[in-house]
Fold:
Amino acid sequence: MSVGNEDSETDESEEEEIQTGSLVTQSLPHTFERDALSFEVDEFRLDGVELNDQGNLNESDQVLSLVGESGWDLLEVEGTVELQSDTIQEVFPPEEWEDSPGRLALVKTNRLAINRSREILSDAPIEAGTHPFEIQLDRDEYRGTVNLEPYLVRSDNRDPGPTNCASKAGSRLANGEPWVVRLDEPTDGGGLLMPIIEDFEDTDRLPDDNHIHHLSLDEPRNPQLYLNRGHPQVVNVLENEGATGGPPRLRDVLYDYIEHSVWTQLLIQTARDTDTDTGETKHSWQDDVLEIFIDDLYPELDEDMAAVQLATDVRSVEDLPALVQKIEQAVHQRYDIPQDTTKLIEEAIQNDN
Structure:
């Protein structure tokens, strides 16, 4: 068992092919138990001190608002996730009930900072019971609204059988009602990948009004993401802070589309700016980009050699097509567009019924 092991949500063995869970079971490839995990927060702490009068805590709606609270650096969240034996028997076939190949994870999603990571609470074989957690949110790394949501995920593959249980590693089997932490207003912009909302028609430095978003590299040391206020319905969806329902599902799909485009551009720019002899980058944000993706691009090389190879491949006419394919695959693993698109389709099917 591993407790408190934070990881990006792109671990190759777990998330290689994420299968979605469901609101509408007949549209899914496998059984998914929605809101089956009991997610309890016992304590919030700001810089090691209990909240007391700080923030606005609504335990019934599972929302903590820290909007307007300043002068803090670290939010600590401590609590438990409970997995019941009935849930294990619903999502695993009978032969796996005793040593169930599952992991329990707490996923942190912050759309405005384009940040998604997970904390592994319990590794395979998963057991029914109460699993404690303690996570941290660094104020400098998050903006807007952070969703905390527990998931039960299949940890290895099995041969398909007569049951409707998932067979692929990385399949999400169950979730819990999310907690929402509101840090500030979503329109307060700035910073790497923290969007600024502007009307693209009002300035010559942004593309025409047909664009929903634009990544500006005019200041190479500080790339800036812009959202087009000229499409108010789109912006309203992107600013939606809900966790369930049609608008949040559509928001997730739109952000997946934006994130996929942005990370691809940042990876290409990082490759161009990386030295072919030393593997050194020009700007500090490029080190962060390499840290996220370099192992997926060149798993057989150490980090320094992988950076050199990336810089070499992007300059090679022969190797560039293969590199573009690698980048596409690496980015797609990080942000699984089919998963969120399927959730949106499920919501639409349910609303039509």
About this structure: The radius of gyration is 21 Å. The first helix runs from residue 12 to 15. The mean pLDDT is 80.
